[in-house]
Amino acid sequence: MARRKSIVVGTAKASPGKWTTGTLTLGHYPDGPITTPVNIACGESDGPVLWVQAAIHGTETGGAIGLLKLLKKLDLSRMSGAIIGVMAANPSAFRGYSRNTPFDGENMNRLFPGNPDTGHSRQQAAVLMETACAVADAVMDLHSGGDEAVVPFYALYWDDDSEASKRSRELALATGARDVWRSSDDWLKGAMFSNVTRRGKPALIVECGGGGPLPESHVDIFAEAVRGVAREMGIIPGRAKRRSWPREMQDCRLVFNENGGYFLPAVQVGAVVKKGAVLGRIMDPHGKTIEEIRSPNGPAYVAALVRPYLPVYSGAMIAECISVVQAEGRGA
Amino acid sequence: MTKKRNPKDLRVGTAKAVPGEVVRGELRLGDYPDAPITSPVMIAAGRSEGPVLWVQGCVHGTEVGGPLGMVKFVSSLDLAAVSGAIVCVMLANPNAFRSYSRSTPFDGENLNRVFPGGRNAGHSHQVADILVRTARRVAGAALDLHSGGDRSLVPYYALFRDDGSDTARESARLARAAGSPDIWGSKDAWLNGAMFTHMTSIGIPALIVETGGGAQVPEEHIDQYVTAIRGVAQAMGIVPGTPPSHRNYRHMDVADLVYTRTGGLFLPAVQPGQVVRKGQELGRVVNLYGDVVETVTSPLGPGWIGSIRRRYMPVYSGDIVSEVMNVVEDR
Fold first, then answer.
1. Which residues of A fall within a CB distance of 8 Å from B68?
2. What pTM does this model have?
3. Which residues on chain B place their C-beta less than 8 Å from a C-beta of chain A?
């Protein structure tokens, strides 16, 4: 891992043994800059740098809160290197409390590496990408199901057999997650973690919770996942708690409905289902079941599911089902 | 005594009551540029004449527990034992429901602040006008189902307009039948534009029942709506049986809305339904550097927490994070 003397992100400048704060400009309102708060927790001694970001989808706030909880517990005198916290990676979506960027309707985690010569969300993506790759040795992006869906706790990395990808897998295991998705899915080629990996640096996503409430147990999961990755990188002393043989998945199928109504789930997130298993039902306003939603693959891990009784339109993304390629506790 | 109607003469939009049956239809509440804006309607009619209860949900589009409670209630009814009818207007603000927003997306209005509405006014005012005219034509009483939506949590309680009239006294009786021991007899000026306030002023008993929110609809909350509808219908004599009652009720009269002055993430310090002292901490606002930037306190006491913003919800300055009601008689 690289060692460096100066770590600067926007107006936040790291200082050995201190927690410093600042802002990173990601774009501009008509009357001023669009900024995200930045925290840098810097150890007394040099070492690797971990970039942690949250709320690239504006309603997925658990990661930011988990990161804050971890930062408050850190003993900086025993740390080597630094953890950079980019607290609202899509500030206008966070402020508008929406998944996508309100200005242009874009899902920001589908258009990396971004481009300064195109639209707003792509410009923001380019700033994040270039800033992270310039300063960090690894990138960790914290997500959840937001308000409308529920996801289990799992880690996700880009599986392209590169050295960065292999290191990403090690970091994914260090999160403590039982379930790891090794993705090579076309629809995630525009995500930040896949682009950072292709740029030659390890990167991963951690997902947990959503569906409205944010229990403290989910905040703790995010905090411990960041701690585990920082340990694996040698920033925080101690060994990461990792599973020897996690459940591994690849090839995620997105599941859509054809009718509008209230969604009633039939399974829990994190369950493994057979192909054709009923994932849930659509109920019309009069109480009649008008559609059954089934898993298109199997055995499949239910990685996301719309929350109970949420009104949905036709073509809503009801579930994510990822094919299980290695069951938990079994060697390859 | 609420006037009786013969169910076969009852019609709401395209739904025409049939004695002993549940019928479906639509009530037109406005128009899109290319099509009508309608609410699904169900009428559950008994075989014999009796009073008519108007039940509506989703005046605020994210408060979906009410319509789910209506569906569950209607499916549990023995229509042979019903006298009169229950009219269910499932989506009183269809446009807000479809957009899944509290207010009406077209005009940004909070529909429950613009009653009685008017024909020569903006979209939400026109929706309010149709709801009032239709309910007034058919109903002996009106029950409006609400929750805290996605962003706030509310306890299970009933709310009526206490203007000292005979209609208000009947509304209070129906509120006590709604299953909750907590009753807000509102005298608040900021609720002058609510539907229940207007219905009371024109002589039709009316109430709101609230429960839940926080982006969750557990079965317990759906059952509370069912209890409320059944209890009010029993108190009106539409459904047989004795409505639920409590030995003691907690009564509130006015509510203070509590606003933040800063932005950040909200950490509540109290639970919905809790009684607090004046000046007691209701919650804190924490910024994204982890600093507590504001402590929000109760403006009155003893105060009953009628709503509280959900844990870790992002808030802006001037956000309503709580409603605290003045307790005039505790249990």
1. 262, 309
2. 0.90
3. 24, 40, 42, 64-65, 67-68, 71-72, 74-75, 90-91, 97-98, 100, 150, 214-217, 265, 287-290, 310-312, 314, 316
